[in-house]
Amino acid sequence: MSNKLKAVIIGPGNIGTDLLMKMQRSEWVEPVWMVGIDPESEGLKRAAAMGIKTCSTGVDGILEHVVADDIRVAFDATSAYVHAENSRKLNELGVIMIDLTPAAIGPFCIPPVNLADHAKNLEMNVNMVTCGGQATIPMVAAVSRVQPVDYGEIIATVSSKSVGPGTRQNIDEFTRTTAGAVEKVGGAKQGKAIIIINPAEPPLMMRDTVHCLTESEPNRDAITESVHQMVAEVQKYVPGYKLVNGPVFDGNRVSMFMEVEGLGDFLPKYAGNLDIMTAAGLRTAEMFAEEVANGTISLPARGE
Amino acid sequence: MNLQGKSVRLHDMSLRDGMHAKRHQISVDEMVKVACAMDDAGMPLIEVTHGDGLGGSSVNYGFPAHTDEEYLGAVIPKMKQAKVSALLLPGIGTVDHLKMAKELGVNTIRVATHCTEADVSQQHITFARNLNMDTVGFLMMAHMASADKIVEQAKLMVSYGANCIYCTDSAGYMLPDEVSEKITALRNELPAEIELGFHGHHNMAMGVANSLAAIEAGCARIDGSVAGLGAGAGNTPLEVLCAVLNRMGCETGIDLYKIMDVAEDLITPMMDQPIRVDRDSLTLGYAGVYSSFLLFAKRAEAKYGVQARDILVELGKRGTVGGQEDMIEDLALTMAKAAGKL
After folding, report:
1. Of the candidates B58, B120, B324, which has its C-beta nearest A153's C-beta?
2. What does pTM read for this prediction?
3. In chain A, ranges of CATH 3.30.360.10 domains
4. Of the candidates B123, B323, B327, which has its C-beta nearest A169's C-beta?
5. pLDDT digits over B221-259, tens only?
6. Cis peptide before A247 (omega within 30 of 0)
7. Residue range A5-128+278-294 in CATH 3.40.50.720
């Protein structure tokens, strides 16, 4: 019997479609449903053409199928406003929720840093922070696991074309959520996040800068080794994750300069910011599936 | 050119854009002294913030000597007639900073975005408008988009609640004809009650000439800084603009001799280096690069042995926008590696 966890994707936009394409290659997660709210949406038509069941009446429209179709995991790529209700309804039916919105009801998840803990604890709702957070927090953590970091700062620069209206209307949410996760997951005592949107044509590849101020003189060799190990961890699910320069040391400042190239599934390769979100979300569900297969955790019980 | 009988409101940048040139190290005492002297000279509006706006304090842009709260809290109570403004770049500062500024008595909030990305300012402009603040939409690096695009983006900001729109020549790239074209287009397309402003940099020594073109085309507000203290080769030098406008019969309400004295006696002695057109600041204007990159490129030159001019030209080619200071060290490292210097 297949160990694949059956999944529903909520939100048939760019993120949801890219996620679906990645999921079709997964050994651990099987996409079954795509949920939207507009029967005429391109995203639902695409999903149907890709052989996925579609529903255009929101999450309510699939609740009756959850048990019958053995849906175990849901990805919410809608908005923070509707996420809480989506999560509550699906959690009630024992579905694990991977939150790709900025709602952040559940704990932040940065796969190479804290996914293993969330999987072992069977967290029923995990939040994937932000694109900038996924790209940079592994680097902050790579420094803070060597020695205490007083201050962590990340600057994410993304192409104008890859930033949707949701992010634009609430850009403060990006800076606040990311800064919070730099502290909570990255391990910096104080976090700061900056986002820059660049309209250059052709669109620029997502790039990120990470600055850490260590409490004491940085241990250069240990930090350099830790950073390279962490880059390799991220590359397992985002092959285009690249350390362009650094770590550079200047007094207690440690700086890393990153570039994130996407896989170019549904989203163009320059949109590494979107790709790293879908890849991290999928990686998260896969680890839950692996833990279930290993018998480390058990999915919520369901009557037959 | 005939500006006879017009009047214009000048807006001083020396305590905000000047923070770039001072590596954000202006002391509270200097801020208060300069602001009081400008207030006495009749300057109507004075900007006080970190060079990169509220919340700009960072490794990326530089940690300031004092917080925005400390600067604003010290300056505002001392003002007899001048109003104080603060800059905010969405993506760097948030509405929390905006609230703080309002509580400290800031009159004017200027929400700045790259000239094609106005829709990131909705949250902040709407918020400021709802607080009844004088709310300015500040379209940066305006040389990088066509007049039509600038108009389209300005209309977005107006729809969010801005009562004034700035065409901002952050790179000091524009020549007077371009200023005339863009301000005229804005004037023709925006409602009459929406004020227009122009913010120049002096990298091509066009600060004064561009400001005159802007006034002629309908700008009611002009940014500059006393003694030119600002990023790159500085902002439009306000004491010079004042003298020129006096000769042309355009009203500013500023006492020329007093503002000359502020420039000479207070601000020039504060400068860490002469603020002038040199080969690097000229390159900013020539290549269309964000003015505050200047000192970062000079530092990268000193550290990595790559010419600042080469770095700036490359930044221009790559279409960098305001706020991308982090690109400078990254690029210098890449260039130094390619040249076998690392």
Report:
1. B58
2. 0.96
3. 131-270
4. B123
5. 999 999 999 999 999 999 999 999 999 999 999 999 999
6. yes
7. yes
